[in-house]
Amino acid sequence: MDYTFAVQQVIFGLTLGCFYALLAIGYTMVYGVLRLINFAHGDLLMVSAYVAFFGIVVFHIPWIISFGISIILTGLLGILIDRGAYKPIRNSPRISALITAIGVSFLLENLGIVLIGGRPKSFPTPLIFDGILKVGEVRIPFLSLWVLFVTIILLIAVMLIVYRSRVGMAMRALSRDMETVRLMGVDADRVIAFTFLLGSVLAAAGGIMWCMKYPAVEPFMGVIPGLKAFVAAVLGGIGNVAGAALGGMILGVAEILIVAVQPEWSGYRDAIAFCILIVILLTRPTGIMGEKLPD
Fold it and tell me: Is 123 part of any domain?
């Protein structure tokens, strides 16, 4: 594998890793606060893609406004899922919350089939994201640069919120001891709703960029990316925001490079992520940057 080819593949891997990272951060924040694996999180990617698609294609809204509406509505949907599905069973056994999360995921997917149909739709990519940047022999798509830029900006914003704001302090406190935080007068339900809002916004941004990279919108498009983002969260350290971002990048680069080196393994591309999950659970269950949190 020559230098130019290797650099090209790393760029593709980082682009893919950005998608996983944005989804993984949502997984890890919800888990950190509630100890809940929100398996419906990947389907928010699908919802955001459909909202943006209909905004541009059906209602002819300018793409930047359509993207903004998609992100806002997906964030509100995240709050609605928390209030409608998870809040009523907050004090129930964790298995109940897990089953509910799977049920919400199936609900969103099947609503997509019933209301919109299962036929994939082509997502329109704005002209600003088209084009190729040539650096020597390396060809970098403008979209990859945009994805890296937006992911870095969003990651910085999330880190500032989590570690430099009062709501971030409350989120970190809830992850340690929810009952004590409630006794101190903190509105835990409001903080949890904000956590779902923030995670859903990141999933929406990832979903829109995913559709510009892989322009086919269909009801089950969020399943595999969602599962891989969960693997990335576990790899980086479930409950750790920076770890989730790191895990997403590692997973994306590993997935692309392994297929680049061994093209005959391309049919096993999805299995690579789950093999990594098995290895990390056997060798370091807390992940790369994770720490053991209290039960």
Answer: yes
| 196 C-beta neighbours (distance < 10 Å), count | 27
> How far is residue 124 from each of residues 43, 60, 80, 121, 136, measured CA to CA in Å?
20, 11, 28, 9, 30
In this structure, the number of other CB atoms found within 10 A of the CB of residue 112 comes to 21
Q: Is 184 inside any structural domain? A: yes
* 139 within 8 A of 249, measured Cβ to Cβ: no
Average pLDDT value for the chain: 90
| CA–CA separation, 294 and 207 (whole Å) | 33
Tell me: the pLDDT tens digits for 101-149? 999 999 999 999 999 998 999 999 898 888 888 887 888 899 999 999 9
| Enclosing domain of residue 180 | 3-222
Q: At what angle do helices 188-213 and 41-57 cross, to 10 degrees?
A: 60
What is the chain's percent helix, strand, coil content, to nearest 5?
A: 75, 5, 20
Does a structural domain hold residue 54?
A: yes
Nearest partner of 119 among 262, 217, 250, judged by Cα: 217
Structural domains of the chain, count: 1
H/E segment holding residue 141: strand 138-141
Here the tokens at position 277 are 């999950």
How many beta carbons lie within 10 A of that of residue 270, not counting itself? Answer: 11
Under DSSP, the state recorded for 132 is E
Q: How far is CA 159 from CA 31, 44, 186, 188, 198, in A?
A: 16, 22, 21, 20, 12
